[in-house]
Every structure is written in structure tokens, then in C-alpha cells.
Design goal:
By secondary structure, this protein is mainly alpha-helical. The protein has one domain. 83% of the residues lie in helices and 0% in strands. α1 runs antiparallel to α2. It is rod-shaped.
Length: 102
């Protein structure tokens, strides 16, 4: 009888510890999501700035190619569009909002 009571107490303590850890973890995740939500506008502005700079660089390259003598150098590859990064950022924050709401 004493052994079963001791085992029950150990199991109860383990369950209580798991419950406390779950609450602590949930609070940490909520703080992280709040911090990410605060960063969303800055990150979006950064993505927009990167996209604009890529367009500017591509335009400068085109103008340089037009101005350079024909055949002296090969045309550079066009810059990769930033839409993939923007889509990734948008999907990330959409998923974070869905988790926060749900």
C-alpha cells in the first residue's frame, strides 16, 4: 500500500511539472508571436526596399549595357525577383496570426 501511494505521488508530481512547463512554454510562445507581429511592418518595409533596389540595379545594368559598346561584354543575368521572399514573409506572418487566433 505504501509503495503504490509513493508511485501515485511521483506520477502526480510529474504531471504537475508537465502542466507548469506547458504554461511557461505557452507564455514564451505568445511573447515570441507578439514580438514577430511588431517586426512585421519593419520586415515588410525591408522587403519592399530590397525589391526596389533590385529593380534599380537591373535598370542601371540595362542602361550600362545600352551605353557600352556592342559586343565588348556579355549582358548580365537579370536579378531574381523578390516576390519569392515576399511570399515567404507573408505566409510566415499569416501562419503566425492563424495560430494566435486559433
Amino acid at each position: 500500500m505504501m509503495i503504490s501511494l509513493l508511485i501515485d505521488l511521483v506520477i502526480l508530481a510529474a504531471l504537475a511539472a508537465a502542466l507548469v512547463w506547458g504554461v511557461v512554454l505557452a507564455r514564451r510562445i505568445a511573447r515570441l508571436q507578439a514580438a514577430l507581429a511588431e517586426l512585421a511592418p519593419a520586415l515588410q518595409a525591408f522587403c519592399d526596399a530590397v525589391e526596389q533596389s533590385e529593380r534599380s540595379v537591373a535598370e542601371i545594368r540595362r542602361e550600362t549595357d545600352r551605353m557600352s559598346e556592342a559586343g565588348l561584354r556579355a549582358a548580365p543575368e537579370p536579378a531574381k525577383p523578390a516576390t519569392e521572399r515576399q511570399d515567404l514573409v507573408r505566409r510566415f506572418f499569416a501562419a503566425a496570426r492563424m495560430r494566435q487566433e486559433g
